[in-house]
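Hi team,

As requested, here is the filled-out complex form for the (2S)-2-hydroxybutanedioic acid run. I kept the field names the same as last time so the parser does not choke. Let me know if anything looks off before we queue the next batch.

— J.
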Amino acid sequence: MPFLNDDYKIRTRTLYLYSQKIHVNPSQVKTSPLHLFPLFLPPKFLPNFASMAVAELSPAYTRTDFSNSRFSYVSSSIRLSYHRRLSYRQLPRTPTTAIRCSVTSDQIQAPVGIDTKPKPDCFGVFCLTYDLKAEDETKSWKKMINVAVSGAAGMISNHLLFKLASGEVFGPDQPIALKLLGSERSFGALEGVAMELEDSLYPLLREVSIGIDPYEVFEDAEWALLIGAKPRGPGMERAELLDINGQIFVEQGKALNAVASRNVKVMVVGNPCNTNALICMKNAPNIPAKNFHALTRLDENRAKCQLALKAGVFYDKVSNVTIWGNHSTTQVPDFLNAKIHGIPVPEVIRDRKWLEEDFTKMVQTRGGVLIKKWGRSSAASTAVSIVDAIRSLVTPTPEGDWFSTGVYTNGNPYGIAEDIVFSMPCRSKGDGDYELVTDVIFDDYLRNRIKKSEDELLAEKKCVAHLTGEGIAVCDLPEDTMLPGEV
Ligand code: LMR
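And here is what came back:
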């Protein structure tokens, strides 16, 4: 290999020791111009580019070149850091694919004085180092946060990611790194999403990486928005759905436990989200149980809209709406504690029958009605509700109000069974944490409805005992209750 320097040769051999699967054929290595790139780099960049050169020769490796977007894949199983990550892992892994930077020096035409050193883990333009000195003089930027999103190539994410990148979620002074998790099947679409993010030129979006291995993608994540899950197919039992999706959340919980920030906030959106959140939490014992959320904010927003419509007011006049329980047709939109213009809803809408029956059912089944219209699940409004849910945790809750989120029930003041994930009213100081609201009232109607949702979640929990480390699953759901989208 006459054109490769000694350092490169040594590193390539070291790589071979870490992964016996890789066989280096020097004659092939030197035919690709891409492999000349290590010559232009200081030694600290060499490991990744050495990986890149070898990866092309691996039989299991697939590669696509997009000359315009300047990226290429590397099998994550052959990165030099792989041996280090192995020590965290509890599950055997198959080789997976992740995007790595392949910006070559001749593609970068920067004026003298600008730092053009590529970053090792990145997508396309996000591989370049930003010079933030000029910005620092006029603005004060916060430390960049890492946000991981699963199901990143799906419809919900397609709305959500651009909101995250724009600053409307975490604020206009909060730089962000997006770590996008997809599947092998959706990988092309994931690349498309990353390319659109590049083309959007968001000043706050500092890094984008994409991959299909949660142990890679969740590394150092401070927020994990878990959207990806299988929809219930025709003829599929609810127990089967719980099992199939539960497996996904076992793996993702373990991955978060191994590699995410120790205080990562986890928002589970993939259905059945309450039980998926419980499974994820049980598989991540090193992350505080309090940090796991199941998204019920969409239901809260739907309830606010219906109350506003009925009362003939704009929906900003509706406050204190709680969704109790499961994100399913047993959920309880609480009109008893809700307010319109600060007045209890039953005093404004003097039609108890409508509140107990029509309103409640409308909220519980809104997802299904929407599917009938759209031919697919809600996506834009779900993304908006994820934004609302995060913002409720990172900004102080307005005085006297609260928001709903599905959280772990241990220590709850309402007498709801412990050890499930249940939607309840919360307040936040804006630090990402929350406390349960105590000034709520109950009547028999509300108690009975809450009990039904609680029973359902307790039954779901028994169905997934094999996934939460609590023994053998016994699945005896009281009735085939449904996700909001299944009606
Ligand atoms: C929704 O509430 O719109 C969704 O959870 C519906 C579904 O089942 O996907």
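Two things worth flagging: The chain has 16 helices and 16 strands. Residues 271, 298, 367, 377-378, 483-486 surround (2S)-2-hydroxybutanedioic acid (CB under 6 Å).

Thanks,
J.
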